[in-house]
Design a protein that fits this description.
Elements (H helix, E strand, L loop, with lengths): L2 H9 L4 E3 H8 L3 H13 L3 E5 L2 E4 L11 H8 L4 E2 L1 H7 L10 E5 L7 E4 L2 E7 L8 E6 L2 E6 L1 H10 L7 H5 L8 H10 L3 H13 L15 E2 L9 E3 L4 E3 L8
Parallel strand pairs: 5-7, 10-12
Antiparallel strand pairs: 1-3, 2-3, 4-5, 6-7, 8-9, 11-12
InterPro entries: WH_DNA-bd_sf
């Protein structure tokens, strides 16, 4: 096979592929595969996006048009689209973040990176917090993304990655699985998540079985905002954002 025949076969795999997928599809020697990858890369038809992962373009003058969520699932493993990106995907917020938020349990030295002009924020979490993930079909790929309830809980855990409490509060205007929301919040093992969730449920009139905190200290409802506002003694939060109009 010449390089164009190899390119045609690789395009059958879609807009991106791994070396192993290419080997299985082309049924050629690994060294020969490396040679073709080198030749096609130099010609501009393929671009390396991660260890053993490549994106394809039939026109070397154009950047591969692969969806940014698909790219994430290919070069960060394990991973899930999360926080502000997941809020937008689930339709909880009309705001479209200019950065893709990804959570992973893998140890990554870089917390931010750019691929094909897209910026990614990589948030490392503890393995016990990596749950509540579903698969979304995007451009013939199954992409891991936090489900509706886990997205809310994650944003209450780290509001700085969702644009603040106002953005996650908008989710309470939509239908949520309250039992699942409660289960997820308890699994996070974070008092701040319980308190923020408890306050928001009270505000939006959502009946959820959560125990009041036994601590005397107060936390900010929105840690991205100044420490000022009324206090809520039930949940021990300082209400430092205005939620009026979101009901």
């Amino acid at each position: 096979m010449n390089k164009m025949e190899v390119l045609a076969k690789l395009l059958e795999l879609g807009e991106a592929f791994t070396i192993q997928e290419a080997l299985d599809h082309l049924k050629i020697d690994r060294n020969l595969m490396k040679y073709y990858l080198k030749v096609l890369s130099e010609a501009g038809f393929i671009k390396r996006i991660g260890k053993g992962v490549y994106a394809l373009t039939p026109d070397p003058k154009e950047t591969p048009s692969i969806h940014e969520f698909v790219l994430t699932s290919l070069f960060i493993k394990p991973s899930a689209i999360a926080y502000w990106s997941a809020l937008n995907y689930h339709g909880f917020t009309e705001q479209i973040p200019n950065i893709v938020f990804v959570q992973t349990t893998a140890r990554k030295k870089r917390q931010e990176l750019g691929v094909f002009g897209v910026r990614y924020k990589i948030v490392r979490i503890k393995p016990e917090k990596f749950f509540g993930i579903e698969k979304a079909w995007i451009e013939e790929f199954q992409v891991p993304i936090t489900d509706r309830e886990k997205t809310v809980v994650d944003c209450l855990d780290k509001p700085r990655y969702c644009g603040g409490i106002i953005e996650v509060a908008k989710a309470f205007r939509e239908e949520l699985g309250i039992e699942k929301l409660r289960e997820y919040a308890l699994r996070m093992d974070n008092s701040a998540v319980i308190r923020r969730l408890g306050y928001l449920c009270d505000y939006f009139g959502v009946d959820i079985d959560l125990k009041k905190p036994k601590t005397r200290n107060y936390i900010l409802l929105d840690p991205t905002m100044p420490r000022e506002g009324n206090v809520n003694s039930k949940w021990r939060v300082i209400v430092n954002v205005e939620l009026e109009g979101l009901e």
